[in-house]
Specification:
The protein is built from ten helices and 15 strands. By secondary structure, the chain is an alpha/beta fold. Helix 3 crosses helix 4 and helix 3 packs across helix 9. Strands 3, 4, 5, 6, 7, 14 and 15 form a seven-stranded mixed sheet that branches. It has a six-stranded parallel sheet with strand order 10-9-8-11-12-13, sandwiched between helices. It is globular.
Length: 320
Amino acid sequence: MHAIVARQSGGPEVLEYAEIEQPTPGPGQLLVKVAATGVNFIETYQRGGMYKVTYPFTPGSEAAGTVEAVGEGVEGIAVGSRVATAEGQECYAEYTVLDAAKALPVPEGVDLHTAAALPLQGMTAHYLINSSFRVEPGHTVLVHAGAGGVGLLLTQLLKSRGARVITTVSTAEKEQLARTAGADEVLRYEGFAEAVRELTNGVGVNVVYDGVGKDTFDGSLASLRTRGFLVLFGAASGAVPPVDPQRLNAGGSLSLTRPKLADFLANPQERLWRSSEVFSAVADGSLKVRIGASYPLAEAQRAHEDLEGRRTTGKVLLVP
């Protein structure tokens, strides 16, 4: 089969389209024929050396496809079942082996490309508004990167919750996407904290969901109301330098958390709760998934270049 392989850290050019041996599922595992793979920023960090991996390395944790073979001891999943995951390994490939416990059932009415685009960002949006900071009707929320994959889903879920949503974007095209998703106010990044204060009559927002990191962190803190909450869930612009906790005191008894999805998929019940709610919302039409770009698997280099160059909106897929 073919897969993307990096033999060393570096830029997108280290991603090779290579022929490798097809894997075999072990006990408790599934062999999945990949229909599409989700591309995520963490894979650029892994490829570039920010996160340590073992080489040769095939990226990818998110995919959807059809079960081709079932390992010993697997119950409730048969050959031919449609599954997705946000917790896979080596998904930049034509086939991948997946722990059955981490397979998410794909309901009727959701195609496999949409299913590949949803698990990681959909379940991230779900834990952000339900578990990191529970948003209630009437809350005012700032969402950075409002036209990104998480941002578009998050905005829709927040509006369905009854929140007022302010987003930041970098271009007019992205502003239109954010407004289509339901954003009440759309700002550019420059001077956003001051604009948020103006829009909230000087009060600030209840919570900021910040997946950008270094470039927005200071402004995010400055956008919060007294006892506000900053949920720093990503670092698209780079890692945030060490923070003096006294800044949280001075800002008005603020709270800061740095969550990751894996800690909010603690058991099969939690995994099924989050995935079934977001998949059901897509199936009934109340949640729209934007696939901004699809690339052939062999063009993974170009997908990474466009993602890092901020030339994409919504979800980026690789298609074998």
